[in-house]
Design a protein that fits this description.
heterodimer; A: 231 residues; mainly alpha; 2 domains; 9 helices; disordered N terminus; B: 202 residues; alpha/beta; Rossmann fold; Arc Repressor Mutant, subunit A
Chain lengths: 231, 202
């Protein structure tokens, strides 16, 4: 966006409890930073100092995650640490693969219980293919992009790779998840229990939103930060 | 009172000052009427985009981040068949503007803006489609081929139609079902008994 509007965003003096009160979805972000609940009256800066988390990176992610039109200042971008961002993204990957997809798979299975065998198989295969597609995508980031960023921070530029090659294409993955939503909402037989169906839909909507933020953090935070390091 | 014959305009413009300005300018001239203003293209905006049924969309491409700006036009096309006109608020490559059905500048005369909106509409009229939401018999046939994994070229040969026609059918199938991927269309075809599980790999 071209306009420089100073809007209200999270700052280091906000209490963690208030942060969550503003946007409860940041609970996910906290756990990906390894912050557990029970933080009492601690502020963001106190918590970061205690846990050894880069404060600017933490604020950057919380703000991107919460405010749709948030554009980080150049100053904040240069003070934040790309390795912290990479750690966060890595932990997010683990969360999707180990927690979220497992739960969604379980919910899907319960939902299609009354369907015939063919229908069960079709839905299971569709989800398995989606999962494989996502795993494949994450794997590239884990094995190529993240090590590159870590190396860059430690010891300078490797000539063999540049973040420009990290031209992401999430669109197909997003479309598959959106198709799953349409199928569950519109095309599964009426014998499927509505409550279970709703559970699946809530989960997909939340996942969709979370993945969208994940993409923004990659495209609008990590890539520009690394561009700066490469220059 | 709503007069019949007004063309519906949707603005996707982050600046409220600019958006209200365009609304006022178009309001004075008639013919086009602003019926909605979105300040971004977030998830909830996309749903409104689908439901508005606008004739023309005027968009400030700054709503797309730099990476996705080159594909802005096609992102809109996923949700609506409206003509899309870019509003140039910042210097922008011709390459980026070319994807739109026209563009207007902040300094265009009011009549010029109206003329450009008209032009954008006439360039879109050949993309005719039906308002039906049920798949036509031909669309079902094509869906079955897609589900079986046939390529556009193979489908075109099979029915002796042009690839262009196949693509139009596929667009309509996606618009009607809301399903975009081949895998998703396969599930749709199976759940609706358009194909049996024997004809695909499960």
């Amino acid at each position: 966006m071209t306009t420089e509007i100073q809007r209200i965003v999270f700052s280091e003096s906000i209490k963690l409890a208030d942060l969550i009160d503003v946007n409860f979805k940041l609970l996910n972000v906290l756990s990906r930073f390894g912050v557990s609940l029970g933080f009492g009256e601690n502020t963001v800066s106190e918590m970061c100092a205690r846990q050894g988390i880069n404060l600017n990176s933490f604020l950057l992610i919380c703000n991107v995650y919460t405010y749709d039109d948030y554009v980080p200042s150049a100053e904040l971008m240069s003070e934040a640490d790309p390795v912290t961002i990479v750690d966060y993204l890595h932990n997010s990957h683990a969360f999707y693969l180990e927690k979220e997809f497992m739960s969604l798979e379980k919910n899907l299975k319960a939902m299609v219980e009354p369907c015939d065998d063919m229908q069960k198989k079709v839905v299971a295969k569709f989800f398995a293919d989606y999962k494989a597609q996502v795993e494949n995508h994450f794997e590239y980031e884990e094995s190529v992009v993240f090590p590159y960023v870590r190396g860059l921070k430690e010891g300078g530029r490797q000539e063999s790779y540049s973040i420009e090659q990290f031209e992401e294409n999430h669109s197909n993955i997003d479309e598959t998840l959106s198709d799953l939503k349409s199928i569950v909402m519109k095309y599964l037989p009426e014998t499927c229990d509505t409550v279970l169906r709703n559970e699946v839909l809530y989960r997909i909507y939340r996942l969709e939103e979370d993945l969208a933020k994940h993409t923004i953090i990659e495209d609008s935070v990590l890539i520009p930060m690394v561009n700066r390091l490469e220059a | 009172m709503m007069k019949a014959g007004h063309k519906k305009v949707l603005l996707i413009i982050p600046s409220m000052i600019v958006a209200r300005g365009i609304e006022a300018v178009l309001g004075e001239l008639g013919e086009f009427r602003v019926e909605g203003i979105l300040s971004d293209l977030s998830h909830s905006s996309e749903a409104r985009l689908r439901n508005m049924d606008a004739d023309v969309i005027i968009i400030d491409p700054v709503v797309f981040d730099y990476v996705s700006r080159m594909n802005g036009r096609s992102r809109i096309a996923e949700h609506t068949d409206a003509a899309v006109v870019a509003l140039k608020t910042i210097p922008m490559d011709d390459e980026q503007l070319k994807q739109y059905d026209g563009f207007i500048s902040m300094y265009d005369q009011a009549v010029t803006v109206v003329k450009k909106l008209r032009d954008s509409l006439s360039s879109r009229t050949e993309v005719a489609d039906s308002d039906e939401y049920d798949l036509s018999a031909r669309e079902k046939e094509i869906l079955v081929c897609v589900a079986k994994g046939m390529l556009n070229k193979e489908i075109a040969d099979h029915f002796s139609i042009s690839i262009h026609t196949v693509i139009t059918h596929r667009k309509n199938i996606t618009r009607k079902t809301g399903i975009k991927t081949v895998a998703g269309l396969t599930v749709y075809a199976l759940l609706n008994n358009l194909i049996d599980s024997g004809s695909i790999e499960l």
